[in-house]
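A note from the maintainers: we've had questions about how concatenated examples are separated. There is no special marker in the raw files; a new sequence line simply starts the next protein. For clarity in this README we add a label.
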Amino acid sequence: MTMTIPKHLSTESRRTYRRIATEYDLTPDAESLLRVALENFDMAQQARALVASEGLITATGKRHPALDVANNCYGVYLRAVRQLGLDVMPPGNVGRPSTSV
């Protein structure tokens, strides 16, 4: 299957897409889910940048609506990553290193 990296993704997301598509043999459905995950990651990052530049509170004294966009998009991203099985850490040490000498 030929890998077609969506051009509208950010540079970071295109790199991630390429890395995952190279490491895994993705079905067309999995490829679509990966695209959706990375689109939502990009939207969440854009919303986060907007809040960083404009502040958490709008001029009217209300919470910035981009906070909800960021939270929703990160949620979709995390669910898609979980559904793809990309949230599983490889076996290895977890936690703090041993302090015994």
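[label: protein 2]
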Amino acid sequence: EAEEKARRVDASSHITGEVGDRLVIKGVVLDTFSGPGGFRGNGWTLTKIDTDAGLVVFWGSLHIAGPDDFEVYAAKGDTVELKATIKEFSERDGEKQTTVNRPHIINIELTGEE
């Protein structure tokens, strides 16, 4: 795991674009983190997506309506395609990341953990 993190830090880059640009992003969900509190007390979720262009993060979960109107949530390892707005470019623990907001799910391929 440490070797993978070191590789990602060395290869990290920001997505090409400017703050405010709305882009189509495709990548694999690296992980989601959740906790109590958040908006209206519903808790918070941070989602990290590994793309060919760099690491993308945003506050929220990825979900769409599935069969019979059940919510389908993206999990670690799932491939997602979404449209989102670039909010900022930053760095955390030496790894460059692009923060986006207002993600709109185009497609989720459930290939990861359930």
